[in-house]
Design brief:
The chain has one helix and six strands, in the order βββαβββ. By secondary structure, the chain is mainly β. The strands form two sheets. The protein has a three-stranded antiparallel β-sheet, with no helix packed on it. A three-stranded antiparallel β-sheet has the order 3-5-6, with no helix packed on it. It is elongated.
């Protein structure tokens, strides 16, 4: 699927809003339609080039708010066994990335 994203191609460079291709959600993942997102200190640190990961290009906006639109296989459930419903409004945070730590 195609969507717009603010991308940094190198440390300290201006962000560019470009069209990117995304794969659909994989097992245990969901697709969130981002309605609002801001830049935070993590984005600033990464953009400066000081982050140890040093991954460029990078898409910013990990602290977004949006709506769960679709899910890959093996959807997660809560402690009561309820499957995460589509259409829920969500707030994404860096903590949501868990051990993977992927910001792009």
């Amino acid at each position: 699927m195609k969507t717009k994203a603010a991308v940094a191609y190198a440390a300290g460079k201006q962000l560019e809003v470009v069209t990117v291709d995304l794969d659909g959600p994989k097992a245990g993942e969901v697709l969130i339609e981002i309605r609002a997102s801001g830049a935070c200190h993590t984005d600033k640190f990464t953009r400066s080039g000081a982050a140890p990961e040093g991954l460029f290009p990078v898409i910013f906006g990990h602290a977004g708010r949006g709506v769960r639109r679709c899910a890959g296989p093996q959807r997660r459930s809560d402690a009561q066994g309820r499957v995460d419903p589509l259409g829920d409004h969500l707030l994404r945070t860096l903590r949501a990335f868990g051990a993977r730590g992927a910001l792009h």
